[in-house]
Design brief:
Layout lengths: L1 E5 L3 H13 L3 E5 L2 H8 L6 E5 L7 H10 L6 E5 L4 H9 L4 E4 L4 H14 L6 E4 L2 E4 L4 E4 L2 E4 L2 H13 L6 H8 L8 H17 L4 E6 L3 E6 L1
Parallel strand pairs: 1-2, 1-3, 3-4, 4-5
Antiparallel strand pairs: 6-7, 7-8, 8-9, 10-11
């Protein structure tokens, strides 16, 4: 499971990220609302932990923006505000749960696990065309045939399956799969897309990874 922490207090953000990693989650942290939107829209996250009071865009604006693009990823909103109207605004903006600071680490983890369970089958599988991506064992399945993917193949395919017909730029894939501080270049993305195309074809998938010049990649069914 991969979780995005959007919190402008860097010490708190890193503390939450470390806590999640210690519990077996993958976690990224960003420190303002605009970065939160950019990361969240990649579609690779199972949960977003979102602060309210942040520079550039506050948490309410971020949640509304993400929901306006039909992103259904659960949002756990964090805030120092405890008034009823603040909680109502958070929920109305698209948050799934509202946790007031200060909070206990056990309470945060309980909320995280509850929201992840609530996703049901979406947590275990992504489907496009006649093909499914199993999130538990990192495999693609079509026509009764199953192939395991490498870690990088899985991450790229997951981004594509979650974005579907929406174009993903090579830069976005590169930054999310390899990381901003990686030495990897755009050619790495092209190579792994090539690997995935061959594997999809080998199991009789009707899913095609389509390249659009200067825009990146998206999925179509043949």
């Amino acid at each position: 499971m991969k979780i995005l922490v959007v919190e402008d207090e860097k010490l708190l953000a890193e503390s939450i990220r470390t806590l999640l990693q210690e519990k077996g989650f993958e976690a990224d942290a960003v420190y303002d609302g605009e970065a939160g939107v950019d990361y969240a829209e990649s579609g690779v996250y199972d949960l977003i932990i979102l602060d309210v009071m942040m520079p550039k865009m506050n948490g309410y604006q971020v949640a509304k923006k993400l929901r306006s693009t039909h992103l259904s990823t659960p949002i756990l909103m964090l805030t120092a505000k405890s008034e009823l109207l603040d909680r109502v605004e958070g929920l109305n903006s698209g948050a799934d749960y509202y946790l007031t600071k200060p909070f206990d680490a056990r309470e945060l983890l309980a909320c995280v696990n509850a929201l992840l369970r609530r996703q049901g089958s979406e947590v275990d599988e992504l489907v496009f065309g006649n093909t499914s991506l199993n999130l538990e064992n990192c495999s693609i399945v079509a026509n009764g045939q199953e192939l395991r993917l490498s870690a990088k193949e899985f991450d790229v395919m997951r981004m594509l399956m979650q974005s579907k017909e929406k174009n993903l730029s090579k830069e976005m894939i590169l930054s999310k799969v390899w990381g901003f501080d990686s030495d990897a270049v755009e050619n790495h993305v092209e190579v792994y897309v090539g690997f995935l195309r061959k594997k999809l074809k080998s199991i009789g998938s009707n899913v095609e990874i389509v390249a659009v010049r200067r825009l990146g990649y998206h999925l179509e069914t043949a």
